[in-house]
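[scheduler] slot 2 assigned
[scheduler] job type: sequence-to-structure, two independent chains
[scheduler] chain ordering preserved from manifest
[runner] begin chain α
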Amino acid sequence: MDSCYRYSACSFTWLCVFSIFIVFFISGRFKSFVSFSASPTLESPDHHEPKLELQRIVSTNDQIRAVGSTDDDQQHPNGLRILNTTIIRRKKLKKPRREYVLEQGLALARASIRSVAIARNVTATFNDVPVGDVYRNPSTFYRSYVEMERRFKIYVYKEGELPIVHDGPCKEIYTIEGRFIQEMEHGARRFKTNDPQRAHVFFMPFSVAWMVKYIYKPLSYNVNPLKQFVSDYVKVVSTKYPFWNRTHGADHFMLACHDWGPYASQGNSVLYNNSIRVLCNANTSEGFNPRKDVSLPEIHLRGGYLSPKLLHPPPRNTSRPFLSFFAGGLHGPIRPQLLQYWKGKDNDMQVFEYLPADKDYYSLMLQSKFCLCPSGYEVASPRIVEAIYAECVPVILSEYYVLPFSDVLRWEAFSIQVETKEIPKLKEILLAVSEEKYRKLQENLRAVRQHFMLNQPPKRFDMFHMILHSIWLRRINARLG
């Protein structure tokens, strides 16, 4: 009996030990002795994850320890013991730099524009889609414009104080300089960004016209104060921000309609050579580079408003009794030639140095078939835009002048360009224009008029947006980095 009892007790003891061992094994804790823990989600052959590079990391905090260790086990805040295992982690994909993302967006824009240039078609979603032979390629222009509206972001530097920075003249001869600055400061919501990291270009909103007014000494002909101001401004923004140094100024732009804009830009050689300079004085013989610089239309708004006579020009079949018209002072080398040959010489050629008191400037424009637009001391002339308003075909008498928006517009479709050496033959040249061609030129003037209108607030395809588009074209053609 005692033997049976001892045998039963022994068997029961071994059975208990064996049961404890089985429970211990099944619990999975024994597994820590023989293998690494791993996520079945990552290693399962039946699970199809995107191809990501995996990295096996074993750090000093991930050492394999024996189960049951009490000294080195990590403790969870809730008191539970954390088992140390080898960890397989997804390698973090490096987030692309913001400037890389911007450049990729511009690359997509370039590809989109090229595709339309090849196909030469466009899907119209607005009533003001450009058409006609005034454009080099209307489909390409429209796609580029839409991409600009979709993507283009401009950061306006906040540095600088009034009146020379953040302001400019909004009437008279340098109207466009002040109006553009004002719109960028207080409007342009679609294009302006307050986050410089999102910007494609950076605007330095100083006014050269106001520099001349406030810091230039009259009659000194010393432009060094202007150059010094520009130099100091670039120094401030390039020291405070990383953006100028990142691209050597290639994604920065200034805008000036004053004749001395090019001279002021010489205050910083990097700005002069690399940055986008938007200038009325777009003279290639004085350093204007059409590959990176932008020709700015010069517009003269007397009192800040367009003359009512030019708001609504007469119908096309209205009689225009004069062949041509010009009135202006003796500025530069071209006008003296024009006045020498044609002032008071021919009633068909209404050429004046100073307009008589009994004659009205805009009325004579509206009564003339051709409006003569000779350069003065500088190449640009507000007469070109005024002639477009009056639907008086501009006759451009200039040398080394890059005409505004010529990346997009075919100026030969709505103007006549005459070499200065041909001034003695000017009447002969104009009379040789057939009536059919003249009507076509005048019709095209009406088509391009919208691109030279200065609206407030701006409207699609108007002068403000055409200036932005010219800057946009320089930016998408400049691959930075």
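[runner] end chain α
[runner] begin chain β
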Amino acid sequence: MYGGDEVSAIVIDLGSHTCKAGYAGEDAPKAVFPSVVGSIDQMDADGDNENNDSKTSNNNVDSNKPKGKRRLYVGSQSLGFRRDHMELTAACLVQVLSPLKDGVVVDWEIVDSIWDHAFKECLLVDPTEHPMLLAEPSSNTQQQRERTAELMFEKYKVPALFLAKNAVLTSFASGRATSVVVDSGGGSTTVAPVHDGYVLQKAVSTSPVGGEFLTDCLMKSLESKGIVIKPRYSFKRKEIQPGVFQTVDIDFPNTTESYKLYSKRVIASDIKECVCRAPDTPYDESAYSNIPMTPYELPDGQTIEIGADRFKIPDVLFNPSLALTIPGMDSFAEISPSVRGLPQMVIDSINRCDVDIRKELFGSILLAGGTASMQQLKERLEKDLLEESPQAARVKVLASGNATERRFRGQYIGISWFIPANVVFQVRFVHLTGMKSMELLTYKENALKMRPMGCISCHCMRSVSAP
């Protein structure tokens, strides 16, 4: 059993953009790194080594590895180093090497490598000695939970495991058991009502418009204006005289297009975070045509001026059809009619809840996620909701005053509240028909008996008494 201050539980929040890992009860994660993984096909790597020098010791080592397998690279440092033939793509491209798509895991081998990196390289811990708490999206399926438990118990041999909804953790972080959590992350935006610590699944709303989508919109808009973003690996700067630098382009023919796109996205994402802010009113081309320009210096020394795009890109969250006016975003036209803006998602989600709790939900709307840390987003959302919500509703949008806290601390503060309230983890291994199945039981300190929970292997409901 693990309870109270004796718990040194490890917390992992695997998102579509970044993975956060740390210890329960702390205000911020110990490690934050991209949840996208680089991949090199061993056949390509071995072929290049043989062409360069077939007698080197490196080739002798690589020749022992099976052909056709891929070598994975995880973490900011590994992804920042350019390698020949390394594929690294986001979920919206053809080859999916981000482990998540719309919050659902699509590649468990990559997820496994991310967990390995978190345990061995970031936290430097032995997972067999720590109970595990994993944050999961509100739309996570039963099959995903089963696979997660299987890996954690069978491979990592964790002594205890608990899966908690992101929305519940964010709600607990604000000291509320009932709220509407607006989680705008890298891959998508999710609106999830929470009542008495439980997510109301029937009222959860999702949208593909997230941080990565806004970054793509900004990249396409800059490209249409003739602004070229050079990846950091594609040039070097030499100081020809004091204070004067010359940029020399470097050509790497074996660099994949996916890695080039990822490197450009990193720069475009920094531009978005530095200069963009949500407009006070819906974006209008004529009203923002003469807006003052804001300078931004690119890594190659080029200084660009950004004007109306500072407000147009964030307004896509409130008016998704605005993305169709950006050159190069034609692919969004197929799903654009079904995508709703942020205020409409919140109101529709609340309207699908019971009438008795709608007033409380309108007064407790919480912002979470990296995209939600954008300047003036809280004020704009509250303003739009006041205009569109029923007159009797008292709308209140809550968010941390610090952007860093809003981006990372929601789940971790929530877990520090969550662990004392659900202190006991107990894991039992049950042998059924010769196959080991896992049964995860959890109960509160003040419970008289253990709450029955279905066996995750056979979906049966079994009443289990406390030992």
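[runner] end chain β
[qc] chain β: The chain has four domains: 4-53+68-169, 179-209+337-417, 211-332, 423-467.
[scheduler] slot 2 released
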